[in-house]
Amino acid sequence: MKFIKDIKVCLLFFGLTAVSCTDLDETVYSSITAEGTTLTADDLDAIIVPPYASLRSIYWGWDGMFDVYEESSDLIVTPARVGIGWGQQYVNMHQHTWLSDLSHIEGLWSRTYSSINQINRAILQIEGLENNEATDVYLAELRAMRAMCYYILYDNYRNIPLVKRFDLPEGFLPEQSDNKEVYDFIVAELNEVMPLLSTDGLGSYGRFNQYAAKMTLAKMYLNSEVYIGESKWEEAMREVQDIIDSGEFSLTSEFSDVFALDNENLVETIFAIPYDNIEASGSYLAFKALYGKSRETFDLAGSPWGGSAGIPQFIDTYDEDDARLETTWLGGLQYSSSGAPILLDENDPDSQLNYTNYIKSVNEAGPTEGYRFIRYEIGAGVVATYGTDVPFYRYTDALMIKAECLLRLGRADEAASIVSEVRQRAFKDSDPSKAVMTGAELMEGSTYEYGKYEDGKITNYEGGDDIEYGRFLDELAWEFVGEHHRKQDLIRFGVYTTKSWFSHSPNGGFREIFPIPLSQMQTNSNLEQNPGY
């Protein structure tokens, strides 16, 4: 597929530097936008390649979406590690003590607006083409992708500027739009361009087709009660039902296939951000998580950095027969690719590398404490980053959105049927009977034992029995951990700012949204800081 190859080989300037949303006249590093170049209808695919390539930085740029959505949650943490480090910013993310200059908050804003800037530039270029009936389709695709970028910003910051043009006057400072205005713009934009978007599923792999737009719209509706105080469960279910009824997508037979090194063109992927091992690598997650000695297990060309790990309270929620535990987490005694024990001290045969389901605290963790995240397949010979495509929206998500809407609409048994379908591949090789869920079970509270966790013990037990539909929240965690879900899910289920976990205690309801980044407040007098900051 030539277009996907073009995305992968396009120079990802935005992975190297962050661009402020007010820098609307910055040079775009692409041969097709050089001064003096005359563009024609033959350049349409080339024009939209840079916007697609820029999405890689949003997702796997340092301090990207994984950190923002997962490490501020109850699933994953990067503690300060004895002898390794990692620093206060990850502690602040975990404990919800961030300020407006936190690099995660700065980075997500700047990278996403950089993508919007790229999209706006491409729109301007296409609008300048004459007598080409295909331009409306390409413009619709770009507008839908821009709406997704605004959805990411809106989900995290709410009151954001809506910049819809590239050709703006010198010194332009965008004005902030209020919460409802941004919500209405995203929804209206997606609905307006929907009829023009491709309905070819795998045939438009890596392109923002109608199904990707419907997933974005479904996410807006699913979280509408949080966003604007109005529940829209029927509307969310309608959008994903269209995806289900299309017949374009289905579950893969093996859960691990979704995250395999060669995961392009899978029947489960609705929208992917394409990467490439050589031309467009970007996922550094294995290196961020694994301890250095684990290079011997995976024959890595470089030494990992030993950071992120699963929060023990979450690891304890897994059923031992759930295959997602083993395919997602690396725990226990470790061996090299040849089967030999990996020793921390070559002179001590008892010093075998052992990942324990224990972390002392976020401020003081040993280098091998905590299970390590390995959901994305790790290839031999990798130095630091690798090129597995990101399944940004997948069919399982559409199914679970429908299930949640059914559950909240009082149709728990129908929801349980869908959840059982999703669970079946996780238990098919162990105990298939455990895949079957009932509506009554989904109505129960969470199995997560919330409370402050210190030195392996919960010191102030809070439990999860009081979480409405908490058992369904557990299902979302087991299926989507590490997939830019958890922050949003915890907020929707009322947990993000009300429960304690590991070294985190509730720190104010206003933490459901991030502050406007300090750099933006300092350079744009039109911006007003979000409440609480």
Automatic annotation (TrEMBL):
Localization per record: Cell outer membrane
SUPFAM superfamilies: TPR-like
Residue stretches making up the SusD-like N-terminal domain: 87-222
Every RagB/SusD domain range: 313-499
Gene3D superfamilies on file: 1.25.40.390
InterPro entries, per database record: SusD-like_N, SusD_RagB_dom, TPR-like_helical_dom_sf
Keywords of the record: Cell outer membrane, Membrane, Signal
Keyword Membrane annotated: yes
A GO CC term assigned to this protein in UniProt: cell outer membrane
Highest taxon of source: Bacteria
Protein's name in the database: Putative outer membrane starch-binding protein
